[in-house]
């Protein structure tokens, strides 16, 4: 997987190091020459480092953003993270963009324009690691009594979907297969119990209990492009 990171501070450095150790390809865009020098020492030589402004399409092009599977903005400025993610998506058609959000009040703004907002470095790392199975159903455990399984469904993110359709869907409006129950949803660092009025968004991780064999049907029901 190829990941472009805007921001070479402590969070960007940690994220790049983690991804490189797991065998992913990484490019970092950083304005500070001093930080670039530091990264050149601390990160493996295979990491691509671009000294420039991540909000400039020229430097994003130098970083190979057009080929990126994921673009991540980790700077300490929500404005910078927002603009750089918008450029990655609009100019270079990156299908998944993730931004560090420093002010919780900005999370709704980021989400509404199709940027995945997170506030924890470890959460960003887990999100990227799950990209290989994004939208897939992952079995968490089998219940010993009866033929039931607990699964995690990552709701796919379709960047071709019009933004007005990203308002989410109520659980009560989703046609789940027989024998399936949604019990919890994870979004960023938050986890909440699912109710009929709960709104699900692309990118959410949903915990389900179901009969064995209906996991893929649950995935289809939760797909953002699924007609309800």
Would you give an account of this structure?
- Strands 3-2-1-4-5-6 form a 6-stranded parallel beta sheet, with helices on both faces.
- It is built from 7 helices and 13 strands.
- The two termini are about 35 Å apart.
- The protein has helices spanning about 10-20, 35-40, 55-60, 80-90, 105-110, 120-130, 215-220, and strands at about 1-5, 25-30, 50, 70-75, 95-100, 115-120, 135-140, 150-155, 170, 180-185, 190-195, 200, 205-210.
- The chain has about 230 residues and is α/β, with parallel strands linked by helices.
- A hairpin with a 5-residue loop joins strand 7 and strand 8.
- Mean pLDDT is about 80; it is low at about 130-145.
- It is elongated.
- The protein folds into 2 domains: about 1-130, NAD(P)-binding Rossmann-like Domain (Rossmann fold, 3-Layer(aba) Sandwich); about 135-220, 2-Layer Sandwich (Alpha-Beta Plaits), CATH 3.30.70.
């Amino acid at each position: 997987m190829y990941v472009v990171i805007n921001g070479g501070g402590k969070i960007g450095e940690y994220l790049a190091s983690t991804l490189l150790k797991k065998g992913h390809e990484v490019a970092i865009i950083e304005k500070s020459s001093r930080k670039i020098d530091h990264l050149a020492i601390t990160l493996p030589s295979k990491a691509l480092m671009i000294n420039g402004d991540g909000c400039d399409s020229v430097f994003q092009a130098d970083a190979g953003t057009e080929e990126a599977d994921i673009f991540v903005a980790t700077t300490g400025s929500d404005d910078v993270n927002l603009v750089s993610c918008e450029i990655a998506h609009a100019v270079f058609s990156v299908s998944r963009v993730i931004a560090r959000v420093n002010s919780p009040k900005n999370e709704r703004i980021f989400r509404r324009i199709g940027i995945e907002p997170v506030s924890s470095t470890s959460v960003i790392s887990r999100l990227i690691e799950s990209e290989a199975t994004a939208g897939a159903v992952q079995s968490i455990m089998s219940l010993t009594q009866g033929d039931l399984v607990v699964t995690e469904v990552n709701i796919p993110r379709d960047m071709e979907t019009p933004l007005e359709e990203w308002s989410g869907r109520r659980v009560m409006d989703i046609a789940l297969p027989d024998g399936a129950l949604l019990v919890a949803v994870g979004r960023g660092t938050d986890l909440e119990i699912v109710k009929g009025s709960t709104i699900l968004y692309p990118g959410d991780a949903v915990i389900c209990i179901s009969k064995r064999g209906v996991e893929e049907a649950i995935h289809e029901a939760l797909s953002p492009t699924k007609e309800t």
